[in-house]
Amino acid sequence: MCGILCGLARSTGPVDLRSSKWAPMWEALLLKNKNRGPDHQGSLVFTANSLALTMHSTVLHLRGSQVTPQPYQPHSECPAPLLDRVSACSSPIALSFNGEIYGGLDGILDDSHLDTNDTAAVAEFIAQNVGDSPSLLKGIAKLKGEWSMCFYQLDRRRLWFGRDCLGRRSLVVHYPSLAGWVAGSDLFLISSVTAGTEMDPPGFWTELPADGMYCLDLRSLDEAAQTLNQALESTPQGPDASSFSSQFKEHIRHFPWSSAVSQVGSEDFLPSPLQDINSTLPSVSESDQVVDYLLATTLPNEFPVLPEHTTAVLRRFDEALSNAVRRRVQSIPKLIQSPKPHAARLGVLFSGGLDCIALAALAHRHLPLDEPIDLLNVGFENPRVQKAQSAKSSRGKKRESAALDSECDSLSGAPIKPVDAASATVDDESVYNVPDRLTGLSGLAELKESCPGRQWNFVKINITYKEAMEKKDYIASLMMPLSTVMDLSIAMAFWFASRGEGVLHDDNRPYSSPARVLLSGLGADEQLGGYGRHKVRFDTAGWAGLYEEIKMDLGRISERNMGRDDRIIADHGKEVRFPFLDEGLCQRCVVVASVPQSRSALPQRHWREAGAEDVRPARAGAHKGGNGAQAGGAVWCADSKDGARTRGRNRSDLKPARH
User: Fold this and answer.
1) Is 280 domain-assigned?
2) Residue 504 lies in a domain
3) Rounded average pLDDT over 432-438
4) Contact predicate 173/208, CB 8 Å
5) Residue 229 CB neighbours (<10 A)
6) What torsion, rounded to 10 degrees, do the Cα atoms 311, 450, 585, 557 define?
7) For residue 71, which of 100, 42, 98 has the smallest C-alpha distance?
8) Which of 248, 271, 294 is the last residue in one of the domains?
9) In this structure, are 306 and 231 located in the same domain?
10) Domain count along the chain
11) Are 243 and 300 in a shared domain?
12) Same domain, 479 and 560
């Protein structure tokens, strides 16, 4: 995990943005990016004619035997970048890179080279191919993993920037007006995170779409600036500045992702690593097999026999997910700075849902048995519990409870208005028994039973109303440019969970997780049809409608989730990784999309039938509601309130609409 920060100013000489009029915002950007990369900070400044480009990078060391300074310049005769050094190096590029690459550069970055420093390898490749745009774009498109990058091409004075096709790493951009930029009253900015100051209010930043690579031509921009500057000087009253408001973007070229075969190899496109979703509809007999399977009356821990073809598909899915987890956990470096010989290198954002239990169990396969794994479970002080206990004898209990429901976030249980805790009659621990805590503890029991010999550190992260409100504004600044109430609710849960400060469930000892890498189950619901609306879509439009809904979810996941989650979690110097969004797994889901069992979050017994013997969350799903993969079978039985599979329903209720 790293922080990327670039600023392009109009100037005739080197610019120190920390002593300029933008200093408050720039200092805030430096600090927030430093939080993301505490192991190294470095800057380079490039000047030419009337332009001054400042590139700043921060590094969280997670690959290679030693820290690789950034911005990184391959084949450079200069020493490692130092803060505010004016560069005169001979390297063809300077790279700021954020992410993890698990494959795509044959023989350099693949499964046998997970300990190789990916920043250096990517920089070497770019330096060798930067003069050949088709080869450059084709190579970047092959990179497998979570990444965002920004690199400067010195000879042609081009600034390239972009995110992977799923947007798993954040980049935000501020586009100035050309007139404001030429006049020196505005900057062009690229950053991993926003500043959150008065100088960058809401609307200042734009999340860079995860739709390809972008290239800013500094030569053409400089020429346009000189032309505009001459116009400003020759017009006494000055030209209408609004006429230049959109011209800055005209100097940025877009190279979009494309899966069209006819466009592969073209200069104007990056060949997409992911195919479009398979829209081949299952046959009536296949659909009926699913219905028969769901209606099978078995005991909770018994598993009916699946068709042989379906079992084979699920085994391949299990293998793909297992490989995705392996690639993301085996490359984590040892915690040299930790005083404990067996400190946890890995944490799991753990709500007790099927997705995170599966990730924890698969990580168990691939990490040494003597290493603990931290299960990070957050619970907010729940005023509904307090109020319900203290108002048991009140005749107005129902009205008060209804009012409190509107005051509490429905997702995390975080209070919006304070409640007098002194009036509560329950102990301190019970007020944090929100749904995710209960399912988390059930999931812990499943892991201890199914994956013995491992030390599972269940970290109870209990957040009081007071602390939540104290951090609210800061967390809101991190999630910008997103700004909805739902975004804030999710962001607060992730920020406190990834901080990792709480007490251990086994003995209530204070504990701060040292794990720098966290696994998230994001992508499971979106790809496997885990939301309640997927069932609604299936009921109303059949398989074709379900496929369209899933395609829409994958298409918008970068703008709705990925950038926000990266900005929030990385603030603690932690890196979140998404096995369910591994390119190999995504491709597997696409290829087998016509097999209904593999496209849906069916009941947990599927994992057992698929051969995932170490994943048996049969009881953990019992507390989950009807949304998300945690519910188990949301596509067909989301209206089962306790999350258990539906029993005794008519076949017609479960069949898709015929279209």
Assistant:
1) no
2) no
3) 92
4) yes
5) 15
6) 120
7) 42
8) 271
9) no
10) 2
11) no
12) yes
Q: What is the pLDDT of residues 238-292, one digit of tens each?
A: 555 555 545 889 899 999 988 654 454 456 788 888 876 666 666 656 666 655 6
d(CA 380, CA 253): 46
Residues with Cβ within 8 Å of residue 347, at least 6 apart in sequence: 373, 374, 375, 376, 498, 500, 513, 515, 517, 518, 519, 574
Q: Which residue intervals of 391-523 are DSSP H helices?
A: 397-407, 435-450, 465-479, 485-499
Residue 80 is encoded by which pair of tokens?
């490692």
DSSP 297: -
pLDDT of residue 243: 52
- Tokens at 443, concatenated: 């999931």
What is the set of active-site residues? 2
Q: How would you classify the pairing of strands 212-217 and 158-163?
A: antiparallel
Q: Are residues 189 and 295 in the same domain?
A: no
Q: What is the pTM of this model?
A: 0.83
Question: How many Å apart are CA 104 and CA 629, to the nearest integer?
Answer: 30
Q: Domain range for residue 583?
A: 286-333+344-368+447-454+475-484+518-654
Q: Give the position of tokens 């979140």.
A: 576
- Residue 415 forms part of a structural domain: no
The residue that leads in pLDDT, 262 or 15, is: 15
262, 362: one domain: no
- Short-list 604, 630, 593, 654, CA closest to 313: 593
Q: From CA 563, how far away is CA 480, in angstroms rounded?
A: 10
Q: Which helix (H) or strand (E) holds 564?
A: helix 563-569
Is the pLDDT at 95 greater than 90? The verdict is yes
Q: Helix 583-591 crosses helix 308-329 at what angle (to 10 degrees)?
A: 170
Tell me the CATH number at 647.
Answer: 3.40.50.620
Does one domain contain both 314 and 261?
Answer: no
Is the domain of 294 the same as that of 267? Answer: no
The domain that holds 108 is classified in CATH as 3.60.20.10
Q: Do both 111 and 221 map to the same domain?
A: yes
Confidence of residue 308 (pLDDT cuts 50, 70, 90): confident
**Is residue 51 assigned to a domain?**
yes
What digits encode the pLDDT tens for the residues 113-159?
666 788 988 999 999 888 888 889 988 998 999 999 999 999 999 99
Is there a contact between 93 and 153 (Cβ–Cβ < 8 Å)? yes
- CA gap 79, 164 in Å, rounded: 30
Residue recorded with tokens 């048996």: 616
